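Practice problem: predict the structure.
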Amino acid sequence: MRIAVIAESINVNDSSGSKVNVELIKNLAKICEQVTVYHYTQRDIQLAGIPCISIRERKLSLNYVLSRSQRYFTKFTGISLHRPLESLFGFSFTFFSDTRSIRAVLPEIVQGDYDSVITLSKGSSFRPHYALLKFPELHGKWLAYIHDPYPFHFYPRPFTQVLPGYRQKEEFFRELSKVARYVGFPSKLLSEWMGSFFPEMVGKSVIIPHQISEFDPNERLDLPGWSSGNFNLLHAGNLLKERPVDSLILAFQRFLKQHPEAKAHARLFFVGPAQHHEAKLRDYCSQIEELTVITDFIRFEHALYLQKEATVNVIVESKSEISPFLPGKFPHCVLADKPILLMSPLYSETRRLLGKDYPYVAESDDVEGLSQVIAELYSQWVKEKNLKLNRPDLKDYVGVDHLRQVMASIA
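Answer:
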């Protein structure tokens, strides 16, 4: 199979979306005859052994001029035109300019006679998808990969927002659901969730979980208070506004009070940006000696190293009725092969994959339940020291062999 991938970004250090894009591309290259990547990162980034073509931003267009004019107007007047303009047009002038730049390479992809064309986005932006939507020559080969709900008013609570231009954004995805040959999702629950809003997606949904490729991170990152001989609970990665960790910290504090002997060994680490929680986390640090918070940006390789060296990796999901997302860090935690402490609602893709009998799970606001989970993990660590997740089934699910089966089913 010869595949063209159109990605918004392949810079692994700019977002979790870019990280999972790159992991998917790497594994596709292992199972396909040819994978060529066209990306709009605006940097000359190459992936070993994979042809990567940087899409040039085209500046000779009305939308480009309007986007820059709007930016300068806001800079000099302090008046933002974002909401009224997106309410009118559905998207920003920058979005329209970028999608036209991406569309300019599509004739080259047509001439390449690929068997499949996969579009990968980043964050809440689906620029490659919008570009391909306007190019019917490729619709019969198109797999539109959707990593999160869209538009924002289709997110589950507490993420739900009604953004300017929501009607046009909804119509964009309704049209996509009709013309794409396949619609890919990282999560079974996300596929079902989006299918409830766009019924046309149901018969063409393909589940392609976030991928892992074998890694042996060789870049150490020394943290204050970190010792390989300790019981280290680690959350590595960005803490979103909608995912507070107060309950986990209070649970850890309760655990230490109930097990004072653990104070010599137990440590809780938050490593990564936490813009909306930083002040509160600093306050907790002043009260809890065993808590360490590093809110600086850390490189992807350093996060992988810490996850592999941790005793327990923490995955935080929001307090909600459902969490259809598959966190980008999930496959990395699986490959690190350390127990996962999951803060999750009952209906969640991560909980579904770990299984109904997985013991280290509690609701995100359940302080007592989280404290009991930490105590159980600590008790196991005292007995065994080197705790393992030991889930070869999950390694297979997020690995190359399962991806090969999925791609063969749609060839």
